[in-house]
Amino acid sequence: MVQVTVSDMNTGLYEATHHVLDSYDHIVSPRGMGTFEIESFHLELKDPHRPLANAINRLSYLPAIGVAEGLQLVAEESRPELLCKIAPAFSQFIEPKFATPLHGAYGPRVRGRVRKVIKELAEDPNSRQGVITVWDNYSDLAPWRRGSGPKPKDIPCTIGLHFMLRRGMLNLHVHMRSNDVWLGLPYDVMQFTILQCSVANALHVEAGRYFHNADSLHMYERDVVKARALTKFDHRRSQLWPMTGVGTKDMSWEEIQHRARTLLDGGSPRDMTQTEGFFHRALETYA
What we know:
Elements: E1 2-6, H1 9-23, E2 26-28, E3 35-45, H2 63-75, H3 80-86, H4 106-109, H5 113-123, E4 130-133, H6 137-140, H7 142-145, E5 158-166, E6 169-176, E7 179-180, H8 185-203, E8 206-220, H9 224-228, H10 253-264, H11 274-283
Parallel strand pairs: 1-3, 6-8, 7-8
Antiparallel strand pairs: 2-3, 3-8, 4-5, 5-6
Helix pairs in contact: 2-8, 2-10
């Protein structure tokens, strides 16, 4: 097990990347692709308001991906056309024959469940039942194993989310079966902390800590040369303002969701916060 505790994701991405490069447990080849892997990786982000990894020399880092994915989670929607505009590589996973063209999209999988978590925690702040399961054994595994349908191209990497109110703040525990440290980790942390801070707003509390647990944290051999060039970040470029999710603490979940959809559409919610302004600028080229 590897445990990393950091205050921001510039440090988090740097440390996670070098753990995989320098201290990997296995070299495996899923689907024939050579992969360096750590089993049981745990990242604690002490400040979920600082998920940006923009102050290190990570080439091709596009915050718009994490912003779009986070807003889709809050809106409980899937916008594959937007993701493909931001990063054309998403198009390889589009399957029009499925009800959700991106089969593994998280937005539709959490639909209606976030509201129930908010209600549960509002009624019982000590509850341990603020859980949302993302993985679905039936749709993600069983049909194609039985030969009753094709295997989806886009299988979700996330198993579930667990929201907990502790010491008056909202913590989020994310459990992933699989996580690509180079292509996935910085965007996964951003999207889930956007959701965490937005749910905290709906509960009228502060976001506490973010816990990211991956059964397999890995890197494909094709990315090793780029990853080894990663250097420690420049503090002068690091995120100086807190990312506070969608909405404010005087808003309902329905209002927050409406603002997320407006941002996904390229619009500007009324009285935008600094964070929402960042989201708007990140997506305005693509929406």
